[in-house]
Amino acid sequence: MARPLIAVPSYPRLRQGKIPGWGTEAFAVPALYVDAIRRAGGLEAIVITEALDDDLVDDTLDRTDALLLLGGGDLDPATYGREREAKIVGASTARDASELSLTRAALARGMPILAVCRGHQMLNVALGSILDQHISDTPGIEGHGVPFVEDGAQINEVAIDPETRVARAMGVERARCSCHHHQAIEAPGKGLVVTARSADGLIEATELMDPDGPWVVGVQWHPEDTAATDPAQQALFDALIAEASTFLRQR
After folding, report:
1. Average pLDDT for residues 149-154, to the nearest whole number?
2. Is 174 helix (H, G, I), strand (E, B) or coil?
3. For the residues 92-104, what does the mean pLDDT come to?
4. Which residues contact 135 (CB under 8 A, 6 or more apart)?
5. Catalytic residue positions?
């Protein structure tokens, strides 16, 4: 049987000269995500997050079997109806619009979804949630790493609710997770339920509430960072590919 094909929306357009030796602009995704997909037995389809109208969204999802939403820059607060309250880093209105369209269309189709860090925020915003724009200044919130810098990751322990999609996928109820983010959801989006928290109470994972619904999981941490050496983190990608394989067979 053919390997399932995973839609992976790209980072925003990289400016000319950003990649040494390249004389043109470029599109890219971090290799760690692709490595994790390949280890799990899937194949990636990089989706350029520019000018994705409804027809292009449908064409993309017609040809793929699951959606992987990546980390990256902050969502523009306008996507969840708020004014900017703090420094927003790396926002891209084109990427926001494309990923919102892809996420909502994938949910409507019942496609499997794994959403990571920014992707976790995107999934929840697509379902009506809002974000805390700068958790780093919130009393009682512990360190969650520093985004957008080298070596900004911090390993935090996350408690996972038993008998959830996340717990079943990872095979653990406590996990050491790589974190580097300064934003987080304030509450789960419509139809989602909180399934993991850090010691300071921050929401670390959400998933589709309906146990008979599609496999839709979001994690605030970065499983791709340690998936090559931590089987529990790789297992999230394994679960996504297994669900994508089922989705492919049922087409």
Report:
1. 87
2. strand
3. 96
4. 141, 144, 181, 182, 183, 184, 202
5. 117, 222, 224
* β partners of residue 68: 114
Q: Which two tokens stand for residue 144?
A: 């969650």
Region 5-249: CATH code: 3.40.50.880
**Whole-angstrom distance, CA of residue 211 vs CA of residue 42:** 24
What whole-number distance in Å separates Cα of residue 18 and Cα of residue 166? 36
> Do β-strands 192-198 and 113-116 pair in parallel, antiparallel, or remain unpaired?
unpaired
- pTM flag (> 0.90): yes
Query: Could you give the 3-state DSSP secondary structure of residue 137?
Result: helix
Q: Which residue has the tokens 């679960």?
A: 239
Q: Give me the phi and psi of 75, to 5 degrees please.
A: -70, 140
Question: What pLDDT was estimated at residue 21?
Answer: 81
Q: How far apart are CA 13 and CA 18, in angstroms?
A: 10
The helix/strand count (H/E) of the chain reads as: 7, 11
Distance CA 160, CA 9 (A): 27
Locate all alpha helices (DSSP H) within the chain, ordered by sequence: 31-39, 54-62, 93-109, 118-126, 165-170, 223-226, 231-249
248: three-class secondary structure by DSSP: helix
What residues contact 223, with CB distance under 8 A and at least 6 apart?
36, 116, 177, 178, 233, 234, 236, 237
